[in-house]
Design goal:
By secondary structure, the chain is α+β, with helices and mostly antiparallel strands. It has 2 domains: 15-94; 97-173. Helix content is 57%, strand content 16%. It has helices at 15-26, 32-96, 152-173; strands at residues 98-102, 105-110, 113-119, 127-130, 137-140, 146-147. The strands form 2 sheets. It has a 3-stranded antiparallel sheet, with helices on one face. A 3-stranded antiparallel sheet has the order 4-5-6, with no helix packed on it. The longest helix is centred in the middle third of the chain and has 65 residues, at 32-96. The mean pLDDT is 76.
């Protein structure tokens, strides 16, 4: 069996065993048959110890592989979570001050809340109703952008819902 780098080889020394056997042979009370039984018993003991060590080694190899897989899974999960946290922090920073798109128009978000005035998607100027005082179109007087499919009343409802959502999220975060 080839050794892996970093693993120590296990050596079983026969010197102490040989010394014990010589001592037993030198004594007159030990018979040759009992000596053979002693040697066989010691051989079986060593064989069973080696077999147990192999089983333990195989178990530890399997445990190491399982823990390595768990570690890789946890590292991947940690990376995904860190990416998600970074994305959420960026979104939070953008929402604290900036603009949020809702139904084809922007609303300005400030630290105090949400501005109810719908803004142009291109130049962020305030959109006005066209014709004036109607519920037909929202038009940017700066660049000519027309918010298609969004009426002034819809924009007001969107601003109200956005304010309500911002209040709710602020209450949950405290």
């Amino acid at each position: 069996m080839a050794r892996r780098p970093g693993c120590r080889a296990i050596r079983i020394s026969a010197a102490p065993l040989t010394a014990v056997l010589r001592e037993c042979i030198s004594r007159t009370w030990v018979r040759r048959g009992s000596m053979m039984r002693l040697i066989e018993g010691l051989g079986q003991l060593v064989s069973s110890a080696v077999a147990a060590a192999r089983v333990r080694f195989e178990f530890l190899q399997a445990e190491h592989a399982r823990l390595k897989d768990n570690c890789e899974t946890l590292l991947a999960r940690t990376t995904r979570t860190k990416d998600e946290i970074r994305t959420l922090r960026q979104e939070l920073a953008a929402r604290r001050e900036g603009y949020i798109e809702v139904n084809g128009v922007h609303f300005r978000v400030m630290l105090g809340g949400v501005d109810a005035t719908p803004r142009c998607m291109k130049c962020q100027s305030a959109l006005t109703a066209f014709p004036p005082s109607s519920n037909e179109l929202l038009v940017c007087l700066g660049c000519g952008y027309v918010a298609r499919g969004v009426r002034p009343a819809d924009a007001a409802k969107s601003a109200f819902e956005l304010r309500k959502t911002m209040r709710r999220s602020r209450a949950l975060s405290h």
